[in-house]
Amino acid sequence: MADVLTAEAVRDGLGGLAGWTGDPTGISRTAELGSFPAAVAVVDRVAEVAEELDHHPDIDIRWRTLTFRCVTHSAGGVTHRDLELARRIDDILRSAR
Ligand SMILES: C[C@H](O)[C@H](O)[C@H]1CNC2=NC(N)=NC(=O)C2=N1
């Protein structure tokens, strides 16, 4: 099982991720899309990536604003798998704008 990262390692990882904040208890990012259908389409693409990685974000949908939270539930904190998932979510968000 992946190890929970130290606060410093999470900080380093977040350095390469625009818009994400957090600490070893979880990392999150909010993004506003152009419409509710556009937001739901992003969630659908994130679902595909989550299945591919077998790693799943917590997702909050409020009209066209999405909040993603990544934490490895089985490890009880943020692991390298969350940083990878966050990078993939950013790729999707970039291409959705
Ligand atoms: C068996 C499978 O790897 C696990 O149940 C996965 C699925 N997706 C997961 N996603 C997240 N975020 N944390 C987990 O611990 C987790 N566990």
From TrEMBL:
InterPro entries: PCD_sf (IPR036428), Pterin_deHydtase (IPR001533)
Keyword NAD on entry: no
Biological process (GO), any one: tetrahydrobiopterin biosynthetic process
Keyword Membrane included in the entry's annotation: no
Keywords: Lyase
Pfam families noted in UniProt: Pterin_4a (PF01329)
Domain of life: Bacteria
Entry's transmembrane regions: none
Enzyme class: lyase
Entry's Gene Ontology molecular function annotations: 4-alpha-hydroxytetrahydrobiopterin dehydratase activity
Reactions mediated catalytically: (4aS,6R)-4a-hydroxy-L-erythro-5,6,7,8-tetrahydrobiopterin = (6R)-L-erythro-6,7-dihydrobiopterin + H2O
EC number, as in UniProt: 4.2.1.96
UniProt family annotation: Belongs to the pterin-4-alpha-carbinolamine dehydratase family.
The protein, known as: Putative pterin-4-alpha-carbinolamine dehydratase
Species whose genome carries this gene: Micromonospora haikouensis
